[in-house]
């Protein structure tokens, strides 16, 4: 730290109690200076020879004891004492902590060159220009001290000069940095051990500034246009995290902090990480910041949503909402991401957004895959909320293009979580949510889980079995299913293309027919000894399937389906042996299978489901 000594005489200021100060001298004092409750007993000649203001005050007083009051002097007692000692020629030491208060007090006392050459104002200005403003840390220290000396420090341009000094040094090439600085953060992962100055060397030291001064310094750094937006973004993140929790303490102070940081963010995309933007957005919601600022943050998050993780999006809902999380906010973010692709290079868009239900655009690249996975993970988390409406779940799931999901395992997990957390859904609602999923994009593990999942509608299980059978039985001899029995789709998802007027009984008949037809295809293929053998082994009670058959996995699923669905429906045809393995009565005659299919079609109720016999 830089310092400057003035004067050569020993310090002879003395005190009596807490409210009397005087100079130890043989000469009697002839002036009393009051500052608040403290009285200084001093001599006129040394003071009046260097202070124009004291001359004016003394000449205007009519009291015999020459008592004057200057309680409004900037810097208070300590600053006046420095000025008084300078007038007496006593030794005083100026440094970054007291020089600005002394400068403001000297200005108040009008200690200019016009009254005496080499006066205090001149000497302090020389010290500031030649030492303080050339020092990185001293400039930051004196900027701190100027806050308590406003508006004097502002009027004297000291604040502006401090900010210019700090911003100029922060904008210099790192290789030219020759002063000490604070740096406790992680070094660049590519650091090779050679001592080098990191690009963000100045970030931690500025975290000590109050928000109003910090804002002015960052604006000055940005105006000099020599610092990358990435470094500025890192500085804003470090400052925000250093100031403590954004959701606790003084609400007004924290709100000002969030609003200021958002205002200072560079306009360039990617200047800060998406996780930090979501931290700001969460704080903005809790602190009830302006809607305009929230929209700005939503837009920024949407522009780099692929960087986020599901936990970042778990923003609490407003107090007046029944839901746990603010799903509407996430809907806006995902919608912003979808809109981001419009007209952007590298994207091919097909479709348009209509309100909250977009015909999702088809985009090239991997960003959409990442966001689809993110949305599915988020849906799985918020599905645990019993108050989450089905409409919001569907709106968010449909916001992502089907082509962006190479696999639907994540979506299936989210749907299963929602069904588990909302057992009161109607049959039509369960069917509606399952139309989001394309069973052809489920992995083998997901299919195995799904066919045993009692929460899924029967039609979904049937379609999974059909597609799994087709996938496992792709041999040239395999005879495809008739079109009349093939699973039907609705916009690429599971569902039915039938008219909305189709009755519930007819739907159940169709489901039962599909189930029996799938069973016949599995066990009735001519010339496939392995298939018949595998099912026959189950019929004989072995409880396991033959090895090597291409349709082994599918037949295993059928076995589990028949054992599980029968118990779910409460029918009489479900049975098991003492070991818990399912039993099947299989007849390989095509005529009987055909007869059973017709019987299934005519069955009006799901509870009367027949087994293959």
From TrEMBL:
Segments forming domain NPH3: 200-471
Record flagged with keyword Zinc-finger: no
Region: Disordered, residue numbers: 474-512, 524-613
InterPro entries: BTB/POZ_dom, NPH3/RPT2-like, NPH3_dom, SKP1/BTB/POZ_sf
Keyword Glycosyltransferase set for record: no
Regions of compositional bias (Polar residues) in chain numbering: 490-505, 572-584
Positions of the BTB domain: 29-96
Pathway note: Protein modification; protein ubiquitination
Any Pfam family hit: BTB
Keywords: Ubl conjugation pathway
Top-level taxon of the source organism: Eukaryota
Family: Belongs to the NPH3 family.
PANTHER family for the chain: OS12G0117600 PROTEIN
Protein name (database record): BTB/POZ domain-containing protein NPY2
